[in-house]
Amino acid sequence: xxxLVQQQQPGAGSVRxxxxxxxxxxxxxxxxxxxxLVVLLLRGKLSATDVRRLQPDQFSVEGCKKLVDVALTYVDxxxxxxxxxxxxxxxxxxxxxxxxxxxxxxxDHFDDELEHAKDCLDxxxxxxxxxxMRELITKLKTAEREGRADEAGVLNVQINQIRMRxxxxxxxxxxxxxxx
Length: 180
Known about the structure:
mainly alpha; two-stranded antiparallel sheet; elongated
């Protein structure tokens, strides 16, 4: 939460106000799964399977990207993240130290932490897949408009692969659903 710090300048008689980083809830607006995943990471509650699925580029909050990137350098033999070295390295970091401190001190309650972590990772995967789909569709429209049929065909195949993955259908030997 923003804290207004009032500092009296000796002899100046003026008050200067400084505002800290934006409130954590505003920072994670629309992406609560990122916040929850980082909270669970900082508690040491991610399984080895969850850690293998973690990727810094899944996160839209820059501090989380850096935190996950650093955390992945501290994976133990069991495949879990060693939290203490992550905290030691990042607590004073100018980019994400305040974020790490605040999230590590949160007392959020999750009924089933392992299942919640899996659900958060699934949501991040879906969001990344949706974003890739939007980007491919934009490229497809441009290729069609510019008459690049070969590129449009390749983009159609990529779009169909994403659609099939989202539908849970194996993509091997698939038939194109998009008119080519």
